[in-house]
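Hey team,

Sharing the histidine kinase run so nobody has to redo it. Sequence (550 residues) first:
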Amino acid sequence: MQIKLSSIKRSLTSMVILITTVLVTLACAVLSFSFIADTQSRLLRQTSEVSQVIAENSTSFMVYNQPDVAERWLQSLRHTPQVLHVHLYRFDTATNSLKFFASYYADRESPIPVRFERVANLSNARITDTYVESSVPIYVQNVLQGYAYVRTSRQQYDEAKLYVLAISGIISTAGLIFSWLLSLWLRRAITQPLDGMVESIQDIARDKEYNRALPEFDLQELDRLANAFNSLLSRIQQHIERQEQAEKAASELNTELEAQVRQRTQKLYESNQELHQALETAHRYQSELVQAEKMSSLAKLVSGVAHEVNTPVGLAVTSTSILQDTLRTLKQKFAEKKLTAQEFQRHMTSFDQNLALISRNISRTADLISNFSKLSMDQFSDEDRAIHLAKFWDDVSQSLRNRHAELADVELSANVADDLIITTLPGPLNQVISQLVQNALQHAFTNTSKPHIHFDFELLSSSAATDDTLELQMTYTDNGDGIPEELLKSVFDPFVTSKRSHGAAGLGLHLVYNLVAQVLHGHIELQSASGEGTRYTITFPVRHAKHLKA
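Structure output:
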């Protein structure tokens, strides 16, 4: 007989039965875990007791050092199938360490390694994935004689787990079957009316017939739900009518908005055209500014050249004029036969002084012109050559010592691998090193008692580097006076020097910068402070770098 429920609340009573079943299943699980825990505790206790018995019976064997007797006694454990392995370790007081004493292995059990490192720390029995183990110290009158290490089988523990799993599976299966049967009954008694309601709602939604209504139901809750849904359908129908009116108004508004968008798009296009023209004009002005900057730099360079050359040339012209006047006076007095020996000697002295002055200034002019010509990058027409870097440094340093006698008082050193070969432009590299050393000799060691210049050569590479992407880093350091802070930002500009009165033209570091940037295609970094020395880090690419084979 079909049971007709009049309320969902009564239907929930049946759910209590299912919940009760679940609780019973959980209770069984708790009891199962308790059973497993008891089994484990019993195994650990039994292993500890066996270990204690073996330890107590092995005391005399330890004291009298009778390993053979201990081995025979341990064979009696073959009647105890739970015992798998036994190791006896005797404490050697002479070496203060443990030594293997005797052992027992059950049938079909392979020997195990000694456990010196474990027996002293195994204070309580413990269970592992494959066995139960325990270690008991052996004392005689509070003196440690050794340890008894025991392994027993965990078969009872594994069988307990299988038993619990079987019982739990049976109970869970029974509960699942019961729950399934109960769900069938609930579905037949409660969900069938709900299915009918869902089908009606799906039909209304599919056909969009929101003026339809759901029928009445026997269940009070479903009947109230149907009345509420019918009221919702009525409101949806009203909303749809209002929505249709709103869509009509929105369509008219969209048409108007599209017209406005087209107008604004046209205005935006015109604005973009104007911006494009303005950008082209800006690029043209930028090109003109670059050319103007180049002309300004050229004017500064020409002005500097004129200023530097003008002084020695002017002095030479002045001295030449004085020589001409003196020579004219000398000729006149000689023609009038009024030239005395004293006047002749005075004029000769004047000639020597002025000629010496002319010679010095012409030499100064020649040096300046030579320095200016070094600024031209066209002179470095060398092709890349493979150089042995250590030998190259020896040649450069020896050349520097030959040209600059003051290097005798300066420690010049370098750190370079003996087997390193690089392919680069040797001429510009030689010029960079020479200019750095010459600049240091002229500016760096005014207040330094033990001057020192050091070069460090290092080949930089990465995991993705190839022969064409390697870089050589050359680091120059000295312990000199450093560079004043006001000159740091302009030290690489032409004609910048702190010793112009001593004959410096301010072109050395400018030449170094041009060589590194334009010829070697690298970059240079400067670190310096007044009184703290100077450091130049120069990095430039090299090709086909390799080391000599041993």
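Residues 8-177 form a domain with the Beta-Lactamase fold (CATH 3.30.450.20).

Ping me if you want the raw files.
A.
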